[in-house]
Structure formats: structure tokens, C-alpha cells
């Protein structure tokens, strides 16, 4: 039987939900170490060649257009910086557990991965442009925000696939469909699994509150606000998965308010104009993620 309690129990009993790989736990531990160094991180990533390849691909994508090719992890660190490398390594090792590669059904999961990568890059771009220094890991927050959808699929492959299809046909946001059908959204499912995996609080918040950042705890709201906006910007640029149909990033969005109220330097910002002003860069990101996934 499917009801929220039942789904929660199945997540906690690990039914169909794998444990986080050792490598992700190792990376999280190192990330907390104030004296962390490259020497600790690179060997861990090197032990997992598919992960190393993904990190390099992403490093190259981030610098697409530069003449320089990023072909070693050491190069990637030089160019991206330590923190970015940590973020990528952690995010990809988390994503790996939920990978959809062998899922054979009617769902276009490649759109999911495209959307996730785009939200990661857009979150990073927004963070830089808006100078949100308090957020160290915008890319991870964006990349992982919808993992609840993958977990949903793993728990209820048939029923969730049908829901994705019927929501797309009716132009209904998947979020609403989930609540109607299962009594719980991918945000809540995401919180359960992220807590179970003991992911950092900022990540749990992004996974669990990116559709309603104002409901997150005060100290964490900015993380969810950034991802709410990055998610909408990606959807508006048609890099979406189960978004339903809409045309603008609304001015009254709670994420904007949170940013305006907490960031003195942005109190007077016209966000609509701001989003228009970075459209070229967003187009560039869109091209890149399609290139990588394709
Ligand atoms: Fe979502
Ligand atoms: Fe999303």
C-alpha cells in the first residue's frame, strides 16, 4: 500500500534505497576538515574512474570556450578551486546511487539529468552575479535539488512513471500530482532520504524546500531561495522535468523576498531586469548541459 507513512518506512528500512557510497561519506568528512588539502581529495576521486571522468567533463564544460583543456584532476582544482571540486565530487557520488542509466521505460530521464545540471550551473551563476557569499556550494544545491523524484521512482516505479506521464499530458506540475496521488511531494521524500544519508544541512534544505523556501528555518532559507529561482529560470528556458507550464519568474516569488530582506546590497534590485541581463549566459549554460547529456 502506498501512503506517506509507508513510503517513509520504506526509505528508513532501505527497501530499494541504497546506502550512500563510502566515497561520498569520505568526501563529506574531508570537506569538514579545516586543513583539507588536495592531497586528500584527489586520490579518493581517482579511485572511482567514472566519477573522475564526470568531474573532468564538468570542469571542461564550466570553462567551455577557453582554449585550455582540463585533463587532469589537478588541473581541475587549479581552475575550479578546491571548493568546487569538493562540491562536484560529493554531488556526483550522491547522484550515482540514484542513477537512471538502466531504467527502461517511457520516461525521458535524460531530461531530468539535463534539468539538474542546468539548475546547478544556474545556481552557481546567480550566486556569483548576486554576490551571495554566504552560500559556498550553490552548484551542489542545484544539482541535487530534485533527488526526491529519483527516490520516488525507485520506490514506486510503475505508479510514479504513470504520474509523470499524466501530469505532462495535462500540463500539471508534477509536485501537485505527487501530493494528490501519494499525499507527499518529492521535497518530503527528498528530506527523508537526505537526512538518512546525513547530507549537510544546506543540502537537506535545498532538497526539501526549493518550492517553498520561506518554510525552511531562517538560517537556511537563502539556500532554498537561490535554488527556487535557479529552478524556475531553468524551467523558463525549457530545461525542465515535470514543471507544468508557466511564462515568467514571478516578482512576488518568496525566494526573491528572502534575498531582498537578507542581502542589504540587493534590497533595491529589479530581479526581472536582472534575469534578462544574464540571459546570454543562461543560453550558454543550456547549450552546455545539452551537449554533455547528449
Ligand atoms: Fe522540485
Ligand atoms: Fe527542479
Spell out the key features of this protein.
single chain; 294 residues; mainly alpha; Hypothetical protein af1432; 2 domains; 17 helices; globular; binds fe (ii) ion
Overview of this structure, please?
The protein is mostly helical. It folds into 2 domains: 4-18 and 102-293, Hypothetical protein af1432 (Orthogonal Bundle), CATH 1.10.3210; 19-97, no CATH class. It is 66% helix and 0% strand. It contains 17 helices and no strands. It has helices at 4-12, 22-32, 38-46, 49-62, 73-80, 82-97, 109-130, 138-144, 147-155, 157-170, 174-182, 186-196, 201-209, 221-236, 254-262, 271-277, 279-293. Helix 7 (109-130) packs antiparallel against helix 8, helix 9 (147-155) crosses helix 10 and helix 9 (147-155) crosses helix 12 (186-196). The protein is globular and about 50 Å long. The mean pLDDT is 85. Bound molecules: fe (ii) ion (2 copies). One fe (ii) ion binds at residues 115, 119, 145-146, 231.
SSE topology sketch:
Elements lengths: L3 H9 L9 H11 L5 H9 L2 H14 L10 H8 L1 H16 L11 H22 L7 H7 L2 H9 L1 H14 L3 H9 L3 H11 L4 H9 L11 H16 L17 H9 L8 H7 L1 H15 L1
Helix pairs in contact: 1-12, 2-3, 2-6, 4-5, 4-6, 5-6, 6-8, 7-8, 7-14, 7-17, 8-13, 9-10, 9-12, 10-11, 12-13, 13-14, 14-15
The site of one fe (ii) ion has 5 residues, from helix 7.
Précis, in short:
The protein has 294 residues and is mostly helical. Helix content is 66%, strand content 0%.
Describe the oligomeric state of these chains in a short phrase: single chain
Instruction: Tell me the number of structural domains.
Output: 2
What's the average pLDDT?
85
Order of H and E elements: HHHHHHHHHHHHHHHHH
**CA-CA gap between termini:** 38 Å
Amino acid at each position: 500500500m502506498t501512503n506517506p507513512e509507508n513510503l517513509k518506512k520504506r526509505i528508513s528500512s532501505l527497501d530499494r534505497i541504497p546506502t550512500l557510497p563510502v566515497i561520498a561519506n569520505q568526501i563529506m568528512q574531508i570537506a569538514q576538515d579545516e586543513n583539507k588539502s588536495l592531497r586528500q581529495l584527489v586520490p579518493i576521486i581517482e579511485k572511482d574512474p567514472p566519477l573522475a571522468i564526470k568531474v573532468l567533463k564538468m570542469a571542461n564544460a564550466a570553462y567551455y570556450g577557453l582554449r585550455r583543456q582540463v585533463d587532469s584532476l589537478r588541473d581541475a582544482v587549479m581552475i575550479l578551486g578546491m571548493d568546487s571540486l569538493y562540491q562536484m565530487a560529493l554531488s556526483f557520488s550522491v547522484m550515482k546511487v540514484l542513477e537512471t542509466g538502466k531504467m527502461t521505460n517511457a520516461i525521458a530521464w535524460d531530461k531530468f539529468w539535463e534539468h539538474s545540471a542546468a539548475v546547478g550551473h544556474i545556481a552557481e551563476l546567480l550566486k556569483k552575479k548576486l554576490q551571495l557569499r554566504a552560500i559556498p556550494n550553490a552548484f551542489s544545491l542545484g544539482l541535487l535539488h530534485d533527488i526526491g523524484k529519483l527516490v520516488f521512482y525507485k520506490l514506486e516505479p510503475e505508479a510514479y512513471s504513470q504520474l509523470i506521464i499524466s501530469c505532462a499530458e495535462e500540463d500539471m506540475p508534477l509536485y501537485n500530482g505527487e501530493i494528490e496521488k501519494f499525499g507527499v511531494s518529492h521535497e518530503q521524500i527528498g528530506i527523508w532520504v537526505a537526512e538518512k544519508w546525513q547530507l549537510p544541512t544546506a543540502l537537506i534544505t535545498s532538497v526539501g524546500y526549493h518550492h517553498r523556501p520561506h518554510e525552511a528555518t531562517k538560517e537556511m532559507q537563502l539556500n532554498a531561495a537561490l535554488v527556487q529561482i535557479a529552478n524556475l529560470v531553468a524551467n523558463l528556458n525549457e530545461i525542465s522535468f515535470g514543471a507544468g507550464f508557466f511564462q515568467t519568474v514571478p516578482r512576488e516569488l518568496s525566494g526573491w523576498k528572502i534575498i531582498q530582506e537578507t542581502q542589504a546590497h540587493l534590497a533595491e534590485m529589479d530581479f526581472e531586469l536582472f534575469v534578462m541581463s544574464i540571459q546570454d549566459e543562461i543560453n550558454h549554460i543550456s547549450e552546455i548541459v545539452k551537449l554533455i547529456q547528449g
